[in-house]
Write a structure and sequence with these properties.
The chain has twelve helices and 18 strands. Helices cover about 35% and strands about 25% of the residues. The protein is of the alpha/beta class. The strands form six sheets. It has a five-stranded mixed beta sheet with strand order 5-4-1-6-11, with helices on both faces. A four-stranded mixed beta sheet has the order 13-18-16-17. Strands 10-7-12 form a three-stranded mixed beta sheet. Helix 5 packs across helix 6 and helix 8 runs parallel beside helix 10. The chain starts with 5 loop residues before the first strand and ends with a strand. It folds into two domains: about 210 residues, Spore Coat Polysaccharide Biosynthesis Protein SpsA, Chain A (Alpha-Beta Complex), CATH 3.90.550.10; about 160 residues, 2-C-methyl-D-erythritol 2,4-cyclodiphosphate synthase (60s Ribosomal Protein L30, Chain: A, 2-Layer Sandwich), CATH 3.30.1330.50. It is elongated, with a radius of gyration of 26 Å. The structure holds cytidine-5'-triphosphate and magnesium ion. The site of cytidine-5'-triphosphate (CTP) has 23 residues, from helix 3.
Length: about 400
């Protein structure tokens, strides 16, 4: 059973009437994903892994589970998808209904605020725990606010120093939120209002302009621009030190991977992209090809793009038994996208078996073909020392050289 004590309920069951898109709002494309997908990434960006509940239109529940369960699994986050209701309030209460008993802190978040930074979630959660009451992020109202009648006539100016615009995630001790939801008789547009209506206290902390809600087409346009900027920054942070674009210097990267031999004698051995009939296989979520994984790590490191673990989650069912070639091709795509060409790659296997020499040329030709650059493959034993010497597994060490494209 999971020991997670915090949950984030992401409400995404609205239709998005004001956005006027053919898809429900949360399923509208944003930055190569959906509004919901971008919101989920922010939630999973929290340092403390939460239990995530996505509340979506009933007819979208299966598709949502299929698409996003692997994303949550890659972050080791417990994950539920539930069908929403006719109002936001009903959707939240359906999310609340599935929370495990151990959850003591609940954050309710609008999927329609996908660019809310993870630190807002963390700040709200910390404040809820420290104060033992509801906490809501909010921004000061900067415009002058007036009360206006139905005919458009100004009635009075409202003192804006007492006003604040509410955002999400809104956080509560679980008991308080459950209690308030079971006692609310009216419809409220946010959880703070509902909780306050039952006489419980709610505090405000500083919100973040990036937590704005996508309501109208212009908001979606703004979100697209912010995502593009953010991705540009990531690419710059990763690639600029290489000097790409300014005729800069080459970059090297190193990668190491280790796989134990599988207990099951029936597992085939895949190493350096080749199948080795009659040899004992390696254990792993994928095919256990340590050489290919080490090469990917070396390439990603050289490009400043992180590592294999971060990109190919072990929870991804698509990678179950996947061959090294799948990892290499995706890594190559990312490296090229970041503005590099591969100079060369070298990988050395450390282990007693298999004997590489008879198939070295074959391995080098295969890997060079996949990466479109020279790959040299070497092997050594570790002189009977350590786990490789005892024949418990194989390790591989790779170095990659990249050049600005
Ligand atoms: N929401 C929900 N269930 C509903 C209504 C709204 O889960 N029955 C969610 C929306 O998906 C959104 C958040 O509550 O993430 C805030 O609602 P809003 O911005 O009003 O979204 P919509 O109701 O979808 O948009 P509109 O009001 O323009 O139709
Ligand atoms: Mg609405």
């Amino acid at each position: 059973m999971s020991s997670v004590t915090i949950a984030v309920i992401v409400v995404a069951a609205g239709s998005g009437t004001r956005l006027g898109h053919s898809e429900p709002k949360a399923f509208v494309p944003l930055g190569g994903d959906t509004i919901l997908g971008v919101a989920l990434d922010a939630v999973l960006g929290m340092r403390e892994t939460p239990h995530v509940v996505l509340v979506v239109p009933a007819e979208r529940a299966d598709e949502t589970r299929e698409r996003y369960a692997p994303v949550a699994a890659a972050a080791s986050a417990p994950f539920d998808v539930v069908a929403g209701g006719a109002t936001r309030q009903e959707s939240v209460s359906r999310g609340l209904a599935v929370l495990p008993r151990l959850i003591d802190t609940v954050l309710v978040h609008d999927a329609a605020r996908p660019l809310t930074p993870p630190d807002v979630f963390e700040e709200v959660a910390a404040a809820v725990r420290a104060r033992g009451r509801g906490v809501v992020p909010a921004l000061a109202v900067v415009d002058t606010v007036k009360r206006v009648d139905a005919s458009g006539r100004v009635l009075e100016t409202v003192d804006r120093s007492e006003l604040a615009a509410m955002q999400t995630p809104q956080g509560f001790p679980r008991g308080a939120l459950d209690w308030a939801y079971s006692h609310a008789h009216e419809e409220y547009t946010d959880d703070a209002a509902l909780v306050a209506s039952t006489g419980l206290e709610v505090d405000v902390v500083h919100g973040d302009t990036r937590a704005f809600k996508i309501t109208l087409p212009a908001d979606l346009h703004r979100a697209e621009q912010l995502v593009a900027e953010r991705e540009g920054e990531t690419a710059v942070a990763g690639a600029a030190p290489a000097g790409s674009g300014n005729g800069g210097t080459p970059r090297v990267g190193t990668g190491v991977d280790v796989h134990a031999y599988a207990d099951d004698q029936a597992v085939p051995l895949w190493l350096a992209g080749l199948h080795w009939p009659g040899e004992r296989g390696l254990a792993g979520h994928s095919d256990g090809d340590a050489a290919c994984h080490a090469i990917c790590d070396a390439l990603l490191a050289a490009a400043g793009l992180g590592d294999v673990g971060a990109i190919f989650g072990t929870g991804d069912p698509a990678l179950d038994g996947a061959h090294g070639e799948v990892f290499l091709r995706e890594t190559l795509r990312r490296v090229r996208e970041a503005g590099f060409v591969i100079g060369n790659v070298s990988v050395q296997l450390v282990g007693n078996r298999p004997k590489l020499a008879p198939r070295r040329a074959e391995a080098e030709a295969l890997l060079s073909g996949i990466l479109g650059a020279p790959v040299s493959v070497a092997a050594t034993t570790s002189d009977a020392l350590g786990f490789t010497g005892r024949g418990e597994g194989v390790s591989a060490i790779a170095t990659a050289l990249l050049m600005p494209a």
